[in-house]
């Protein structure tokens, strides 16, 4: 994939055909995430579960999903101890990583699969907000079958290398090869900057959201 094609791939969305009812949850630029409310893929109010990673004191999305009727499990390793923020929002001081360890920041981090096993209930996840993806690879295989919708906050580093950008694009391609259907890619206005490798000026951060394509196929 050519360099400019990678940028267009990040920005691409097919919400006009893939999602008829798209709604934003969350109150400001950083907290706002799109959710598809089409009947076959929407979280069911009163019977939905959200895993939210990398909260960083931004609670508007989590609170909106809790008000919608979901149980929200929020993970942020910077939190000193786990606690219940409300009846529907449960906060845990764990972070996401490839292996279980104490990080250099003295955070407890572990793989997604282990976190699933620790949580109750853990059989199904309706919405899934993962942390910011800057570059590197995430192992999604075997986990996305339990996810109805997935949101990633993607960052193109202004001083980053084109190789890092390519790695990030490959992560997104892997998600879609596993059957996730993209319905939104929203540029974050505060990220407007210059990216030297592409001689591009514009948004460098994007919220990209998918739903699980198997949900549609099961009904056809």
UniProtKB/TrEMBL annotation:
Coiled coil: none
Domain of life, source organism: Eukaryota
Every Methyltransferase domain range: 15-183
Transmembrane annotation, as ranges: none
InterPro entries, per the entry: Methyltranfer_dom, METTL24
Cited PANTHER family: METHYLTRANSFERASE-LIKE PROTEIN 24, METHYLTRANSFERASE-LIKE PROTEIN 24-RELATED
Protein name as annotated: Methyltransferase domain-containing protein
Organism: Daphnia pulex
């Amino acid at each position: 994939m050519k360099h400019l094609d990678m940028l267009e791939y990040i920005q691409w969305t097919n919400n006009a055909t893939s999602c008829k009812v798209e709604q934003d949850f969350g109150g400001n630029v950083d907290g706002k995430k799109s959710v598809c409310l089409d009947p076959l893929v929407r979280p069911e109010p009163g019977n939905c579960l959200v895993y939210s990673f990398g909260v960083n004191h931004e609670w508007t999305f989590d609170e909106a999903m809790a008000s919608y009727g979901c149980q929200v499990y929020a993970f942020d390793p910077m939190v000193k101890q786990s606690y219940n923020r409300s009846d529907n929002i449960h906060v845990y001081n764990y972070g996401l990583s490839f292996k279980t360890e104490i990080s250099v920041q003295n955070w407890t981090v572990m793989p997604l699969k282990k976190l699933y096993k620790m949580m109750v209930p853990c059989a199904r996840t309706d919405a899934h907000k993962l942390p910011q993806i800057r570059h590197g690879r995430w192992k999604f295989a075997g986990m996305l079958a339990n996810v109805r919708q997935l949101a990633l906050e993607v960052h193109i580093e202004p001083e980053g290398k084109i190789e890092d950008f390519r790695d990030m694009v490959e992560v997104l391609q892997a998600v879609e090869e596993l059957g996730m259907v993209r319905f939104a890619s929203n540029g974050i206005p505060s990220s407007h900057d210059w990216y030297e490798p592409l001689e591009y000026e514009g948004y460098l951060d994007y919220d990209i959201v998918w739903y699980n394509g198997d949900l549609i196929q099961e009904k056809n």
